[in-house]
Each structure stands twice: as C-alpha cells, then as structure tokens.
Design brief:
heterotetramer; A mainly alpha (172); B mainly alpha (100); C mainly alpha (456); D alpha+beta (380); B: 100 residues; elongated; D: 380 residues; alpha+beta; Cytochrome-c3 Hydrogenase, chain B; 2 domains; 3-stranded antiparallel β-sheet
Chain lengths: 172, 100, 456, 380
C-alpha cells in the first residue's frame, strides 16, 4: 500500500514535471521542472530498490548535468529565448508520432497482455524480492561482466570531455 | 513492487512527452532537455525489468545510459555555446547554415 | 479517504522514530546554526582584539535569538524585475538540500535518521550538492549583475571542487570498503586508526575542497562582499536571506560531519584501540562537570534575572550530560533506578560528545582560516582546483589503492598500514607538485589567467 | 537568413559568448569603493575591458567656499577634504598662507607640526592598509590597524581636542602648546609600533594568496605614472624617487634623516611595500623629532586680521597620498581671491582606467584600494 502511494506520488510528479518542462516558455523554468522530473525519477528508482542508481541519478544527473544546463542557459542571452514562440511547428507531426507510439505499445500490451518472447504477464507480473538492494551487486557486475562496456563508457566520457572543451573554447 | 505495467506506462508517458518536446520546441536547449527525458524513460524501464528479473544487468545499463547522457549533454551544450557565440541564437530553425 | 488515513498511519507507525528525529533536526538546527554564528563572531572578536557581541544575554549568549527575531520581522523585499517563482524557490531549495543531507549523518552510534542505507555517505554528499541550485537560481532570479556573477562563479566553483572532494572521499572509502556511515566508523574502530592518518593527502584535499564547496573564505568568491556586494544573496533580505545563511552553516556542519565520519573516526575517541589512553573516556564527563560548575559560579554575576535563569539552565544541562556520562562509573557504588535508567544513553552521549567535538574543531579551522587569509581571485581559485587539487586527489586514489594491495600482501593491519600509505601519500604529493610546476612553466604568460575560459 | 548579422556577431565575438558586454555599475553604494566613487565597468565575463570613474557625489565646492571666508575661517574646511589625514591638509594650507604672508613659523612650532604630520601619515597608511586588506578579503588586519590608529587619534585628541578633523595648526604656528606628556606618548607609540608593523607584515607580506592577489596587478610604469601626474606612494612604487619632503623640504623635514622607499615594478604589491616602509620611516622621523624639540614661541607674529599682500603662491607638501598643493591668489583683502587645491587622490585616480584594463573584477577592488583615494578629497 505504502509502496503504491509512493509510486503514484513520484510518477505524478515526474509526469507533471516533464509536461511543464516541455511547455514552459522560460528556459530556466523548464530546467527547474526537468530537475523536478529527474528527482521524481530518482524516487522511483528508490522505490524499485535501486539505491545506487538513485544516488547516481541525483549526483550525476541532477547535480552534474543539470548544473551544466543551468549554467549554459545563463551564459546564452535569455531575453531572446523568452520572447519567441514556444512551439515552432510540426505540431501535427508531434501528435502523430506520439499517437503512433502510444498506439503501438498499447496495442501490443492490449493484444497479448504479455511480454513479447518470454510470456510474462506484463500488467500483473509482481516479482519476488529477488534482487538484494545493494550497491555492491551493481559494482561487482559492473567490474566483472560489464568491464568492457564500462571501459568504453569511460573512453566515451573522455572523448566527450575533450570535445566539449574544443567546442566551447573561444577562438583566439 | 507494483506490477511491471505501471512502470512501463510511466516510461511510455515520459518518452512521449520527451518526443513531443524534441519535435516541437524551437529552443535547442529545451530539445536537449527533452532528450534527457527520453533517456530517463528508458532508464525507468530498464530498472523496472532489472527488478522484475532480479538481475542487476538492467541497473548497470541504466548507469551506462546516465554516463552517455552526461557525455551527450557536455558535447551538446558545447556545440550550443560555440553556435551561440557565432550566430547569437539558440533556435533550431535559425541554424540553417552548414558552415559559418 | 480511508485509504489515505490507512497509508498515513501505516507510514507513521513504521517510521515514527526517524520522523521525530527529522522534526527535531529541522526545529533545532536553526538554533544550533545561530550559536555557531555566535561562536564564530566570538572567535573572530578574539582574534581581532575586541569583544564581539556582549549586550544580549550573558556574554551575548542570547544574541542568536535576537538576530533570528530581527530577521523574521524584517520586510520581505522582492525586486520588481525578479522572477518571482524562482526567487521564492531558490532559498528554500538551498536550505532544503542542506537539511536533507543531515538525514544521512550518524551522530554517535545510536543517532541516525536514515539508518542503514547502503549508499550512506554518498547520499549525504549527493544531496548536499543539490544546494547549488538554490545559489545559481537565486542569483539568476534576482536579475542583478552582481547576483548573476556570483551565481556563475558559484556553479563553476562547486562543480570543479566537487570532483576533488569526491576523489578524496574515494581514497578514504577504499579503506572502509563500505558506504554505510556506521560501518565506516566501525571499520576505523577495527583498524584502530583513523583514516585521516592513513590517507593524509585525501584528508587535506577534502579539507580544502570542502571549504570551497561551502563558499567559505578564502574561497568565498560567490559572496565576496568587497567585490560583489554579497554575490548571489545581494537582493535577498530578511527571512529569505536567513534561509541562505542557514543553508551555508548547515552545509558547513554537513561537510564537517562527513570529514569527521570518514577521516576523523566519527564518534570514536582518539586512538580507539590504544588501551592506556582509556582515561580519555572520562574526559567528557569531567569537562561537562567543569563547565557546569563554572556556569553556576557565574550565575550571581549576571545583571538581569533572565540572564541568571539562562545561566542556570546551561549549568543544569551540563550536569545532566555529565550525570549520564558518569552512569557506568556510578553503578557499582549506587544502586539507584535512575542511574540504571540513564545507562543506555551513555554510549550515545559519549559518542555524540566526541563527534560534536571533532565537528567543532573542523568548523573552528574554517573560521580560523577565514580570519587569517585574504581571498583568492577567481582564476587563481580555478587554477588551484584544476591544476593541483584534482590531479592530486586522482593520483592519491591510485597510490592509495596500490598501498592497500601492498599492505594486504604483507599482511599489514591497522597502524602497520602506515608503512605503505605514508610513502604513497608523499609520492602523490610529489607528483602533483611536479605537475603544477610543469603547468606553470608551460604557461608563464598567463599570469592573470582567463576567467571566461574557465567559465566555459 | 542572417548573413548580414553574422558580421555584427563576429565583431561581438570579443565579448563573452558574443553576448552584449556586461556593464557593471560599481558604486556609489558599494562596500569597497571607499565612499561614493562610482565606477562603470565594461566587462567581458569578469574581465574589465573599459572603465569610467564617475565622481562628484561628495562635491561641496570647497574651493568656492574659500573665496567667501577669511584666511583663518577657511582653515577648518581643508580638514574635510582628506578627512583621514586632516593634519596634513592643515599643514599644507597654513604653510601656503604663511608663504603668502612671508612669515615663517617658529622652530618649535615646525617640529611639533612635523611630529603630528608624520603621525597622521602613519594613521592614514594604517587606514589604507586595513581597508586594502579587507578589500582583498583579509578581515583581521583592519582591526589591528584601527587599534594602532586609535593610539594616534588619542594623541591628537590630547593635543587639540579633536580626533578626525583636527584643525591642529594655525596660520603662523600653533594655537596650543604641546601638552606635557606628548613626547612620552609619541615615544611609547613608536616603540610599540615597531613590533606591530612586523605583525602585519607577517600576516600579509609572504602570504601566498596576498602575493597572488597583488603581484602583477595594476601595473603602472614609471613613464606612465609621470605622464598621469601620479604622486606619492603610487609614483614611488613605480620606481621614481620623488618625495617633496626631500625635494623641497618644508616644516622641519630638512633636519631629519629618512629614506624614501621606491618600488621596482609599480604593481599593487610594490605599492603595499612602499607604504609599509613609509610607515617605518615616519616612525623614525617621529623618534628623531621628539628627541630634540626646541623651546621658544609657538606662534609667529601675525596679526588678528590677515591681509596678505596681493600676489599668488603655490605650496605643496607630501601628504600621505601624494603631492597636496595649494595655489592661493590674494588681492590684498581679508579673503583669498582664488584657492585652487591639487588633491593627490584626484590625480592618482586618473590612473585607474589604465591600471584596471584587462584585469578581473576582483582586481578592480584591489586597484581602488591600492590607489588609496579618499572621495572627500577627490570631489572636494
């Protein structure tokens, strides 16, 4: 019961935050609502007993990436951004894409009620508490089975770092 | 934990909102933020399935996605700064030159 | 409706103790912060050959309350061109993050709100880092150039020093092998040595980085009063301003607590396993009694009745604490039910005493630096961070890891580990200094630096 | 679309991210503009690309007032120009009028004037040191400096009853005889001051942060300093050995031995060192002076009503902040025809833009501090 309430609370906040992110005229407000949405997502991770991801979401996503966003928003001239139209065009395209997506997933779930392939009843599958809520587990798996992806990710970050520096560096 | 469907629908909702944001907004920064939303939607699904199957692989992949998001944000914002410096705009439909 | 009540009661039933502690922290912390400020002013006065606040209460002891009342009844001014929503939100964010971080801290072996979360110290660090949004958004929302520059400085500073602080924490955590706050302290007890001694370079790095993170002098550039008036807080006044103030000092307590937990042995007394130092366990008791007696002696000298009562209350609290601390000593002599009743609290209070003592020392060090050193310039600050502290902390993680492997290879434990970690730390320091030197040689022309580059 | 706007954009590339340059209005209400100086800074990020000093917020028309007061009546007004060095202002004015009257103060008066003026120099430099350190972020030196300054102000108070705007001297000499323990007081202060000044140096001189904040900041080369007419410590720190006390001795300075400290690079750190050394030298002058105060009258023979012969005179002294000059024209009446004052702060402030360009906002504060301006004197 408590679990459910927490889930609904967080997901409501997440969805509301997401909608406001996309619709706000002021970019800083957008960023604030995105932060709200991300924090709510972190809450859902916690509700899923993924504690490590919860804190990574807060430290990296909210504390790192979003700070970067806010920083850049302040650097670029905001007044220009505020004045213009929110939604450029492609309203219909957007509607179409989202409807199609929703229909696709909905249809899939509706028609089968099962996960494709494995036959788990999707809408009602409640897992037993198999997963120990443990950051050690994540770490072990990260450094054993997924060592190569981990290294690749770090190379990716390095590349991104260099790229960002080169991009942002003023041409003297 | 709730039935997995709840999480899937939450993920779907965030994903669609993100897509709408990417397609309709003009401001590149907001577009980037919408992409973050999409990535988050995926993360929710991954973590939910990880819990469903009792396998941490999903969480590990969510971690990779977060790392990827960081990289993407850094480069994306770097491009925005470089672009803004040259063209004084952050609007996507004014980015109409391949070279400047 | 019924469901809501049910959920609420279920929630309260399950979590009443942490909830109570949470309320207690939110209620008491402003008071504590007020007194930290008073102590800071007194220390500052002492270092500057003057008396500091003396008027309100005995030796100005009631000054914080007077200040709080003043701040609360001040007019609440919002600049006309400010972004009202964000202006309202920013201080709340700042203080909320700081207070939330307190939840993960363990003050003494028994007192911790969020018990046994396995991300422990990471939670504290991560959540307290959210406070930066309060600063950045507050600076942006004020719509003032000073505020904006302060906000930009702040975000750049925090992002860069967080890296160094995080890496320093990693070196400490390598010894602990866990993120859980209680287990970290337990690990130090098992080793019989504080991790601050095992990893001095990490401790030093964290010390510097934590000063920068809490925006304290000599790194207080975001609010540098002689340059930016008050930085991001320029447009804030009254209650909102006091929220920022509360957040700043709470953050100080948080970083001091993290350092205490990880590097200074938490609630353990110095040298926890060295038995000939056991008498240190009685030190708090004696100290408390001493302060109580001093307070009693001072009572007749107070000019006003309120001040006398206040002094009596302070003395009474000291005696109560001393009594609890003395419980295990008294038990063999007196068979009183009262003593038996307070005995369970003994460990908690003893641990709490050492913890608070160490936190106070750490904060005292902050204040000491603030009154002694001039302020860094922004580019110098960035250079110190990126060219020295971050390389140093990263190298330190590497060499500490090597030192630990060497240590386990030779079956070193506790104090013996110093054999490997001390040379490792020296090595890290040398390499970092070498890097710094090389940097300076390669860029002799950049004497005045380039601040806007560091922004980008 | 915007190929035509790209050109503008390119021109703006020099500024932060191509956005408009940030104009930061510093003052007149700002913690570190030392009063009511207003500086308009054009910033690129935090880098200063241009600056404009806007003065006049404290203008009281002192020079005009002089034309409607008798010579004696105007003397207290000059105290209110550089109000942290009132004694020096008074000395300059009195000596200028004495020159106009062609009288000379008696030797005893001259020596006492010298002692008080040198004490005032120390007090002024102490105030500068305290506020300068505060601007750069060191809180504590301010209180130590004020502690010492307090001693000096007490001596002033004992001598003439006022602490800040003293009006200590009269045209033709002194009004008050030195009080009994003046020599002892000054000696005690000077003895104690030696170790105190070492304390300040320990706090700052070798401090890495202090070095970082002051070395290479606000460099003024010797030629530039001369071209701008800078005087006092600002000029000497640039390496020009020019001190009116030596060059054109007045009061009793020709009797005493002292050094003129000069700097080499002309940066903020050099100005700091020069002023510190000047305090030491002033202390030495005071010690020499109290050893032998001649006896005799303290007032030259000037009438109750001063009517200088028609003519004009320029007299300059080395005030703590630089050359303080009085140009007085007399038309033979009891009131001066014109008084023109050359205030050192005003002239030194001209160097601000040159010194601040290319530095950061934080350095601007240091540079204002190192110029040691007093707005009462700049605006008059």
């Amino acid at each position: 019961m408590l679990d459910q309430v927490i889930f609904y609370l967080f997901s409501a906040v997440a969805v509301a935050g997401a909608i406001l992110t996309v619709t706000r005229r002021n970019v800083v407000h957008s960023a604030i609502f995105l932060i709200t949405a991300l924090l709510a997502t972190a809450g859902i991770f916690l509700q899923l007993r993924a504690e490590f991801l919860f804190i990574v979401q807060i430290i990296l996503y909210v504390g790192g990436i979003m700070v970067l966003f806010v920083f850049v928003i302040m650097l670029v001239n905001l007044d220009v951004a505020v004045r213009q139209l929110r939604f450029a065009r492609q309203k219909w395209v957007a509607l179409l894409i989202s409807l199609a997506l929703a229909a696709q997933v909905g249809l899939m779930l509706w028609s089968t009620g099962k996960m494709p392939g494995q036959g788990v009843p999707v809408l009602s599958a409640v897992p037993a508490d198999k997963l120990p809520p443990n950051s050690e587990e994540v770490a072990k798996s990260l450094f054993s089975s997924y060592l190569l992806p981990f290294e690749i990710a770090s190379v990716l970050l390095l590349v991104a770092m260099i790229g960002a520096v080169v991009m942002a560096k003023r041409r003297a | 934990m709730l039935p997995i469907g709840h999480y899937l629908f939450l993920g779907l909702a965030l994903f669609i909102i993100g897509v709408i944001g990417v397609v309709t907004r003009r401001n590149v920064i907001v577009i980037l933020m919408s992409i973050e939303l999409i990535l988050n939607a995926v993360n929710i699904n991954l973590v939910a399935f990880s819990r469903l199957y009792g396998d941490v692989a999903g969480q590990v992949f969510a971690l990779f996605i977060i790392a990827d998001a960081a990289a993407e944000a850094a480069v994306g914002l770097g491009i925005i700064i470089a672009f803004f410096r040259n063209r004084e705009t952050v609007l996507e439909d004014e980015m109409d030159l391949l070279k400047w | 409706m019924q469901a809501v009540t049910q959920v609420t009661t279920e929630f309260v039933k399950q979590y009443w103790a942490p909830l109570l502690c949470g309320f207690a922290i939110v209620a008491i912390l402003p008071l504590i912060v007020g007194y930290v400020v008073l102590v800071e002013r007194k220390i500052m006065a002492d270092m500057q050959a003057r008396l500091g606040p003396m008027r309100v209460g005995p030796h100005g002891l009631l000054q914080p309350i007077a200040d709080a009342v003043k701040l609360l009844i001040k007019e609440d001014i919002i600049p006309e061109d400010a972004d009202k929503l964000v202006f309202w939100l920013a201080p709340v964010l700042s203080v909320g993050a700081a207070l939330l971080a307190m939840a993960g801290l363990a003050i003494g072996p028994a007192f911790q709100i969020a018990k046994d979360i396995n991300i422990g110290i990471l939670f504290v660090v991560g959540v307290s880092a959210l406070g930066i949004f309060g600063i950045v958004l507050g600076g942006w929302a004020s719509n003032s150039h000073y505020s904006l520059i302060g906000a930009l400085r702040s975000s750049a500073q925090l992002v860069s020093y967080e890296t160094a602080a995080g890496m320093a924490l990693v070196s400490g955590l390598l010894f602990a092998g866990t993120l859980n706050v209680t287990s970290i302290v337990q690990a130090q007890y098992d080793q019989g040595i504080w991790f601050g001694l095992l990893a001095p370079v990490a401790f030093f790095t964290y010390l510097v980085a934590s000063i920068a993170e809490t925006n304290r002098a000599p790194f207080d550039l975001p609010e540098a009063e002689s340059e930016l008036v008050a930085g991001y807080m320029t447009e804030f006044s009254g209650f909102r301003w006091s929220l920022y103030f509360l957040a700043e000092y709470t953050n100080m307590i948080v970083v001091a607590s993290v350092a205490t937990t990880l590097f200074l042995g938490g609630w353990l007394r110095p040298f926890p396993r060295t038995h000939w130092l056991d008498f240190l366990d009685f030190l708090p008791m004696v100290l408390m009694t001493g302060i109580g007696i001093y307070g009693l002696l001072r009572v007749p000298k107070q000019p006003a009745r309120v001040q006398q009562l206040f002094m009596l209350a302070v003395a009474g609290m000291c005696f109560a604490a001393a009594f609890v601390l003395a419980a295990p000593v008294l038990i063999p002599f007196f068979k009183s039910s009262l003593i038996a009743a307070v005995k369970p609290y003994h460990d908690g209070i003893l641990g709490g005493f050492w913890f608070i003592f160490k936190v106070s020392l750490y904060i005292y060090f902050f204040m000491w630096l603030r009154f002694t050193l001039p302020r860094y310039r922004f580019d110098q600050l960035m250079r110190l961070g990126w060219h020295f502290l971050i390389p140093l902390s990263i190298i330190n993680v590497l060499v500490i890891g090597v030192a630990m492997i060497l240590g386990s290879h030779f079956h070193l434990e506790g104090w013996q580990l110093l054999l490997t970690t001390i040379p490792a730390s020296v090595l890290a320091l040398i390499i970092a200094l070498f890097i710094l030197n090389a940097e300076q040689k390669s860029e002799p022309q950049r004497a005045s630096g380039d601040a806007s580059d560091t922004y980008a | 679309m915007a190929t035509d706007t790209t050109k503008d954009a390119r021109e703006k590339q020099k500024t932060l991210l191509g956005a408009d340059e940030l104009v930061l209005n510093m003052g007149p209400q700002h913690p570190s503009t030392h009063g009511v100086l207003r500086v308009k800074l054009k910033l690129d990020g935090e880098r200063v690309i241009g600056s404009e000093c806007m003065i006049g917020y404290l203008h009281r028309g002192v020079e005009k007032i002089a034309e409607h007061r008798t010579y004696q009546q105007f003397a207290p007004y000059v105290d209110r120009m550089d109000y942290v060095a009132a004694v020096s202002n008074g000395l300059g004015y009195c000596e200028a009028i004495e020159k106009l009257l062609m009288v000379e103060a008696p030797p005893r008066a001259k020596v006492i004037r010298t002692i008080l003026t040198e004490l005032q120099r120390i007090a002024s430099h102490l105030l500068w040191l305290g506020t300068h350190a505060l601007d750069i972020g060191a809180l504590t030196p301010l209180f130590y400096c004020f502690r010492e300054r307090e001693e000096i102000l007490k001596i002033f108070e004992k001598y003439c009853g006022a602490r800040l705007t003293t009006h200590a001297f009269r045209i033709g000499g002194l009004q008050y005889e030195a009080y009994d323990t003046l020599e002892k007081d000054v000696e005690r202060f000077c003895k104690a001051f030696e170790s105190r000044i070492t304390d300040y140096e320990e706090l700052l001189t070798q401090n890495r942060i202090w070095l970082g904040r002051t070395k290479g900041v606000g460099i003024l080369k010797a030629a530039e300093a001369i071209a701008l007419g800078a005087t006092g410590p600002v000029l000497r720190a640039s390496g020009v050995k020019w001190d009116i006390r030596k060059a054109m001795p007045y009061a009793a300075y020709d009797q005493y031995k002292f050094e003129i400290p000069v700097g080499t690079t002309g940066d903020t750190y050099d100005r700091y060192l020069v002023r510190m050394e000047e305090m030491r030298q002033s202390r030495l002058i005071c010690l020499q002076a109290i050893e032998n105060i001649p006896s005799g009258p303290i007032m030259a023979k000037v009438g109750k009503v001063l009517k200088p012969p028609p003519g004009e005179v320029y007299h300059a002294i080395e005030a703590p902040k630089g050359e303080l000059g009085y140009y007085v024209i007399s038309d033979g009446t009891v009131q001066p025809y014109r008084v023109r004052i050359r205030p050192p702060s005003f002239v030194n402030l001209q160097a601000f833009d040159k010194m601040a360009r290319g530095h950061l906002v934080a350095d601007v504060v240091a540079i204002i501090g190192t110029l040691d301006i007093v707005l009462g004197e700049v605006d008059r």
